[in-house]
Design goal:
The chain is α/β, with parallel strands linked by helices. It has twelve helices and ten strands. Helices cover 37% and strands 12% of the residues. The longest helix has 26 residues, at 353-378. Bound molecules: zinc ion.
Length: 380
């Protein structure tokens, strides 16, 4: 079987859509006008992703406020926040360029999603002539909505975590029911868990094992057959062309991440200084039997934060090197991250979101072509 390849999830939102989001927040346009822009962006995303030759497509998260907040809030500007959430939660991450992103704060129970990713899948499937994938947020990110130390009156942490696992499971199951062929879980908080950044207290609490256990609590509800199609994505962040945890030694995460019983992993690698070391670590720690499912390592061969487009030959060479360390039947190819996980993203290194969008499709096409070249060279 040729080496499989798939994207992580997001694409830059067109400038028109970002302007529509701002106008919607300001009360200048109604929901119908915003949805019309989202529809157009989704149609364009799927059409252009299909044109790259990638065997599976997504809507590029054009309807989501962000990869992490889509269940909670309609826009990043603050429209549509649930009644039991306040905007002033924990910092999700502080990025290397100094900007930060913040999560809402849960003020009372019970915790419920307002929007499930299935809503996006339902609208994407009729537009696509290829199988559709959907990214969802990990329970380990959503657990940061609950205060780090205090208990909420009348809503103990354990009850919150039980509700959270139910909601995450529902999010994944409904995405499959709506027609998704694959669902990948965004786990950007994995590497950040060992950042020890004083500005962001949860990153100094050694929460990685707690994160891993919580993800397994959800994944253990799925059969091995189902988990073949449930992935997990790790990265050091990717927002405003900047990262949040590339300085955390990767082995701290990679030596433990494969304890998570997912069937495949979308692993940032192209932007690492020593890519071969990452292949080696993935070869060493990934398992051929994670509660009944082999773990396929989709290695990042594309850097979405860098506007220069990788060549198919570079992609091929990276994968051929990776195959020296990772069994070929458990090797795949992906991008280091979504191309724009937050709906409002200026893409400063690219100059503009529209240009970054064009570049993203060129990069995906290079990955698809380079992956086919690697399969040929490796005889699979
Ligand atoms: Zn990512």
């Amino acid at each position: 079987m040729p080496i499989p390849t798939e994207n992580v999830g997001s694409l830059p939102r067109p400038v028109r859509l970002q302007q529509a989001l701002a106008a919607y927040d300001a009360g200048e346009i109604d929901r119908e006008a915003l949805v019309a822009e989202q529809d157009a962006a989704c149609r364009d995303s799927i059409k252009r992703m299909e044109a790259t030759g990638q065997p599976i497509v997504s809507d590029g998260e054009q309807r989501a406020s962000s990869f992490a907040t889509y269940p909670l809030i309609e826009t990043l500007g603050g429209t549509g926040l649930a009644d039991n959430l306040a905007p002033d939660g924990q910092l999700f991450a502080v990025f290397d360029d100094g900007h930060h992103r913040q999560l809402p704060r849960l003020t009372s129970g019970p915790f419920r999603y307002q929007t499930y990713a299935a809503e996006f899948v339902e609208q994407a499937v009729p537009l696509a002539s290829k199988p559709v994938k959907q990214a969802v947020i990990a329970p380990s990110m959503m657990m940061l909505l609950y205060p780090l130390d205090e208990e909420l009156p009348g809503y103990p942490r354990e009850q919150f975590l039980a509700d959270l696992c139910d909601e995450t499971e529902r999010d994944i199951r409904q995405a499959f029911t709506a027609g998704a062929s694959r669902v990948s879980i965004d786990f950007t908080e994995g590497r950040l868990a060992n950042k020890n950044d004083a500005r962001n207290p949860w990153t100094g609490r050694d929460m990685l094992q707690e994160f891993i256990d919580l993800n397994n609590r959800v994944l253990d509800r799925f059969t091995a057959e189902e988990r073949q199609h449930i992935g997990l994505h790790t990265c050091p962040g990717g927002d405003m062309d900047s990262v949040h945890s590339a300085d955390v030694p990767y082995e701290q995460l990679l030596s433990r991440m494969f304890e998570i019983n997912a069937g495949y992993f979308l692993i940032q690698c192209a932007s690492e200084r020593d890519r071969e070391e990452v292949y080696r670590l993935c070869g060493r720690y990934s398992r051929d039997n994670a509660n009944g499912v082999p773990q396929v390592c989709f290695m990042g061969v594309i850097d979405p934060l860098n506007p220069s487009v990788e060549t198919p030959e570079q992609v091929r060479d990276d994968l051929v090197t990776a195959a020296r360390h990772i069994p070929i039947e458990r090797l795949g190819a992906t991008d280091d991250c979504g191309f724009s996980p937050f709906s409002i993203d200026e893409k400063p290194k690219h100059g503009s979101p529209d240009f970054a969008r064009d570049i993203a499709f060129q990069k995906i096409a290079a990955r698809v072509e380079g992956t086919a070249m690697a399969s040929e060279e490796l005889g699979v």
